[in-house]
């Protein structure tokens, strides 16, 4: 067993489309524990820290604007290899090609050159998870 924690977000498109419950149900059905959970209006300051690695990329500013467009649900999950496991549940970044059965593959609709609505975020490493949990939950 390798018990990890992951920072997961239901992004503004997921909250607005009332998919929060569906997404959390998949997480719980998989056996991950929700150890922190809140609905937040992310600030630019939080988002600039969260998306630090993407500064300067063409999608950075539209991404931040999208994340400011409505409330986000932030959660900390705990479970065996949950970092990789949640990313597998989420599916690949672009919902158009994300596999059916994944959150993005089943529910993701919108992907444009400047629109990155793919419903969820999940930490991609132990280091990212620690950093992101501190940003969102202090
Ligand atoms: P996430 O961080 O949200 O879990 O997603 P990810 O690892 O699959 O994707 P990442 O490369 O970290 O990108 C973060 C978010 O930026 C938007 N994005 N847009 N237009 C584009 O080419 C593009 N690439 C990334 C997405 O919202 C992605 O989730
Ligand atoms: Mg990422």
Automatic annotation (TrEMBL):
The active site is at 121 (pros-phosphohistidine intermediate). It catalyses: a 2'-deoxyribonucleoside 5'-diphosphate + ATP = a 2'-deoxyribonucleoside 5'-triphosphate + ADP; a ribonucleoside 5'-diphosphate + ATP = a ribonucleoside 5'-triphosphate + ADP. Its main location: cytoplasm. One of its GO terms (molecular function) is kinase activity. The keyword Phosphoprotein applies. The keyword 4Fe-4S does not apply. Its cofactor is Mg(2+). Its EC number is 2.7.4.6. Pfam families: NDK. ATP binds at residues 11, 59, 87, 93, 104, 118. It is found in: Cytoplasm. Residues 3-138 form the Nucleoside diphosphate kinase-like domain. It comes from the Bacteria. Keywords: ATP-binding, Cytoplasm, Kinase, Magnesium, Metal-binding, Nucleotide metabolism, Nucleotide-binding, Phosphoprotein, Transferase. Homotetramer. HAMAP family: NDP_kinase. Major role in the synthesis of nucleoside triphosphates other than ATP. The ATP gamma phosphate is transferred to the NDP beta phosphate via a ping-pong mechanism, using a phosphorylated active-site intermediate. Belongs to the NDK family. This is Nucleoside diphosphate kinase. The lineage of its organism: Bacteria, Bacillati, Actinomycetota, Actinomycetes, Micrococcales.
């Amino acid at each position: 067993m390798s018990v990890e924690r992951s920072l997961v977000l239901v992004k503004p498109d997921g909250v607005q489309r009332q998919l929060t419950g569906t997404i959390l149900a998949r997480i719980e059905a998989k056996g991950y524990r929700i150890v922190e959970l809140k609905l937040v209006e992310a600030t630019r300051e939080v988002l600039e820290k969260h998306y630090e690695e993407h500064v300067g990329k063409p999608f950075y500013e539209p991404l931040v604007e999208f994340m400011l467009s409505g409330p986000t649900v932030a959660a900390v999950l705990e479970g065996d290899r949950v970092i990789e496991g949640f990313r597998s549940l989420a599916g690949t970044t672009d919902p158009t090609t994300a596999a059916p059965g994944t959150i993005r593959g089943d529910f993701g609709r919108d992907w444009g050159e400047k629109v990155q609505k793919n419903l969820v975020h999940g930490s991609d490493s132990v280091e990212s998870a620690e950093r992101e949990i501190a940003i969102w939950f202090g």
